[in-house]
Amino acid sequence: MIDYDVCRIVEFSTIVYCVDAGVATITLNRPDVLNSFTSKMRAELRDAFDQVAGDSSARAIVLTGAGRAFSAGQDLRERSAAYQSGSAPVLGETLRQEYNPLILAMRNLPKPIVGAVKGIAAGAGCSLALACDLRIASDSASFLQAFTKIGLVPDSGSSFFLPRLIGPARAAEMVFLAEPVSANDALAMGLINRVVPASQLLAAALALAARLAQLPTAAIGQAKRQLNQALTAPLEQVLEAEAEGQAFASQTHDHFEGVDAFLQKRSPEFTGD
User: Fold this and answer.
1) Which end of the chain is more exposed for a tag (fewer CB within 10 A), N or C?
2) 20-64 pLDDT per residue, tens
3) Own/partner long-range contacts of 222-226 (Cβ < 8 Å, ≥24 apart)
């Protein structure tokens, strides 16, 4: 669990952000509405990821939700109120200005993100989970591409990540039928990495993040960049990206420490440098 007595907390109104022992935990904190997204929450999430990008003490991230859900997606009450007042922006512009920069910030962050999913991850909430590098779900979690239920199409990266994780046929079924996928089914199809009992979810996610935080952070960041590029680039570009990444990683302190530790038959002590 998170020890808030020792955790360095940054104040936000819709999320909780704290850093302890190399791990930054970002918690969506609107539990009364299943952590549904408002414009303010999207802005605060983007600010949190900007902060963690510049915080050398945070070497891995856990993203989770308060209460009984990860996120139910867009807060439709906010959208409906904007429609009624005549002030609602075109939804495409909301995506371009708010959701898309958030997803790009997550994928471009040179640090690993562990999504800890409990309850429902629906719509943009499902997209947010898919944008994490690794996903652990509670045994009661479910994933829902809810967009067609309200006459919309997938957004916030779902149409990019989903077919790459589970294949085009299963992705089409999730998107078209908009039926929830259980945690165990999500694990079987490759959508998530692990399933744990609900009572163990946060502890399991923090333990995995703590393990990642002890690894060579610069190398992890380069590897993440290469994996991102490999999703769309031809082999020649991926090979060149690997060469560039290796040229960088081979000059880091952690690489020299790793080699010394191997030769001395001891465990390495990586610092992230």
Assistant:
1) N
2) 999 999 999 999 999 999 999 999 999 999 999 999 999 999 999
3) 222/110, 222/246, 222/248, 222/249, 224/109, 224/110, 224/111, 224/112, 224/133, 225/110
The total number of residues written for the chain in this structure: 273
- CA atoms of 184 and 168, how far apart (whole Å): 20
CA distance 131 to 20: 23
| pTM, to two decimals | 0.90
Calpha distance 178→142 (Å, rounded): 12
Q: Rounded distance, CA 15 to CA 23, Å?
A: 16
CA distance 169 to 62: 30
| Average pLDDT for 250-258 | 87
Task: Please determine, for residue 115, whether its predicted confidence score (pLDDT) is greater than 70.
Answer: yes
Matching residue, tokens 């020890």: 3
* Overall average pLDDT of the 189-218 stretch: 97
Q: What is the phi/psi pair of residue 177, to 5°?
A: -85, -20
Q: For residue 13, how many other CB atoms are within 10 A of its CB?
A: 10
Q: Which candidate, 184, 87, 102, 202, places its Cα nearest to that of 141?
A: 184
| Residue 226: alpha-carbon gap to chain centroid | 17
Give just the sign of the alpha carbon dihedral 240, 241, 242, 248.
Answer: positive
